[in-house]
Structures
1.
Amino acid sequence: MSSASELPEPDVQILTSSGVRIPAHSSILAMVSPVLDNIMERPVEHGSSERVIPILGVPCDAVTAFIKYLYNSMCTEEQMEKYGIHLLVLSHVYLVPQLKQRCSRGVSQRLTVENVVDVLQLTGLCDVPDLYLKCLKQRKKRRWRQRKEQRLYLQLSDGLECLEHICREGCTTVGPYDVETAKKPSPCDKYATCQGVQMLIKHLVLCKRRASGVGCCRCNRMWQLLRLHSSICDHPDSCRVPLCSKQKMREDAKWKLLVKKVCSAKAMSSLSLPKRKREEELKETMGRTAHALKTFRLY
């Protein structure tokens, strides 16, 4: 490329969405992009002293990076990080194959489970088969991750139900002090994780490290379950779960997000049940609540 001092005065203006005009040379633009070459061959509007080419719909800095590439065939990693997707679109629209290949590789390297859906839609518009295939694989990975997270949140929801069930009615060997626990050797059939929660409760009571003020990972799990219950419970004053009302505290953004996802997982699980099954569970829940109000004192 010739030095800037050897170039003539710019004879075209590139208009961006923000209203900024970028001066450029029509000969260079036409040499690299056949689309811009065709635009350049059109007659200038009557009464206009200069040619203006609008490149809209993308950030001004992305247009600047695109024009610079047309001049020197270079694209920095910083530009690719910030405007890789925009440059991919521009390279497709204005038929710049070298930049399109560069952007395809750059976007592919930065593909994540968070942006894969947007990039996948873009690949269909920009005809990038290699990137399209990678997006499909990444989307499959994203769905697998979402299902895994959904199972985890549903397990936490089940754990909360077990905790309330144990503190309200008692089950097997753990229960409230004023209710005689069942004598059967196994936990109730409804809550698959009931036995695990009972073991955590027993451990919390007997843990020597907790008694010394240190605690352990199992103690922390139990405390987190208690805190999660407190964050979701709508009736802390009458709740039988220990420390429910005292655990109501200011929560950070991550904790609130966890609470939201656990509630969402439970709601989705309920919606996936057959209608008759949902009605049976609703009647059973109402019956347990009425029984609890008659049997236990409030505090």
2.
Amino acid sequence: MSVTANKSPIDLQSFLFDLRQFERQTAVERQETDHVNVHDDDDDDDDEYHNVDESAADKKKRKRKEAVALAKIKKSKEFARRKAQGTGESDNDDDIAREMMCENSQPFAFQLENCEICGKRFTVTPYSKAGPRGGLLCAKCSKELADDEKKPRANRRGPRSGRRQKQSNLLDGFAQPGAPSLAEMCTKKVADNINDIEEFGDLPPQLLHRLGQILCKRRVLTSRTLNLFLRSDLNFIDIYDAAKLETQDFEKIFAFMPNLYHVNFRFASQMKDKVVDYLLDRDLKIKRLQLDAANLISDACWQQLFRKLGPQLESLKLSNLDSSFDDETVEVMCRECTALQRLKLKQCWKMGNRSLRAISELVSLQHLSLNFVQEVDNEILLNTLSKTSPRLRTLSLEGISTADDRLLDIIHVNCRALTKFRFSDNAVCSDRGFVALFTHWSNPPLEFVDLSSTRDVDNSNPDGPADAIGLASQGFMALMNHSGPGLQKLNIASCRHVSRSAFEEVFAAGKTYPNLEELDVSFHTVVDDYVVGLIFQCCPKLQKLVAFACFNLRDAQVPAGVALIGGLRAQDPIVLQGHHY
């Protein structure tokens, strides 16, 4: 029996009434919903990518931010351009603004997006990368794109002129036209790939030395590359830049090379007392020692070295020592190094008059080079030169400001075998003193002369006093008359009192200086294109001409094989016989 059969007529009527009421209410609600959907299509479209669990407050906040963004877009020039051209899909302002906002917006993190490259659906993260067309990439495509960017791109630059290398070669004095020698090219190729080389093998000593020069110039001589130069059959080691070597590297040199005869370390900042102690324990037969900037060696250790190696040392060159090597150490050196023939002490800060007296006791000295930081007494200097100059073959005095014409007189009287003479940075000696030195001097013609920066330094009187100070016109002509035929290198930079007429007289037509290879006339404002042309005519073997701050030197024609360094147009291409090089 059905359920309705048991109901009374009153209950059945009540049930039907309730059913009609429910259907009527459902129809009303459906109508209202359809009405809302008609007016809120845009809102539903905006909510397409948003979370369905978004609260009313969050939705209101999002709507507010969206309204601000739309208002900002409507004020932009791009919006005005699109509206004027009608490029959008709709003419309604809101539709155009919303379209622009959708183009510029990126999906939020943790939303789903299609990869621009492979089309794969993936979850957006804060680390998702943009693709080439502005879309987002999945993790796999992002990694592949990053790997492609790391690959070296093809060089689109045209062929290089090599100008920078040419200028570097000029500063080094090389102006050889054409290709370098095969040996030089191979040596540089080895230096370019030094990190891939395990050993040099039986490389000739001269090429090994050249490799060391190139690596030191590039500052790539390290503990690893040092091992390539350690050969037990060699008796020399030249390291021109030891700044990257550690203390144990110096010990390793003396351990692997027991036959060392010649040692040359420049910028040896990590050479300490323990290295010298290790050297002395090895009982090496070193006869030529040159150290630069070895400031971590104490005076006591220096003295110990001279007591042990002094009798066998023939050449000693020390430079840039500011924390040690005082007068007492120099006295020990002069007392112990009885066979010393060559001595060079440059920029040793603690040396003074006592050191100068001690040097005068070296009876075997033939080559002397001094550059004092402290001011020394002129009488002590004259006494030292009086004792040592008769045996000297080379003499170099730099920065001795107290020396006067009496020093030049002693050199004129005592020196009979000089081949090299350097006397620079002096403002006391006069031009008459230089004339007296080179006139009727029984010494053979000098091969190397450096008289740079011997001039008056009174800036208020640039022409100098009437009695010229330093090397001037008469002294320059006397020098060239005496040493011109044998001169190979000449430096008269900053001798500003040499006149133009003196240059024209020295390099006049018909005169020849057959051996002159290097000439420095920097800071001579009287030197111009004409004077340089005379120099080229009179010096057939000239290889290097330095002319910094010669402001009248503009368009000189430089012969092939000559390196012109400086000049007003030093940046221009080097000209060789009218052709670009």
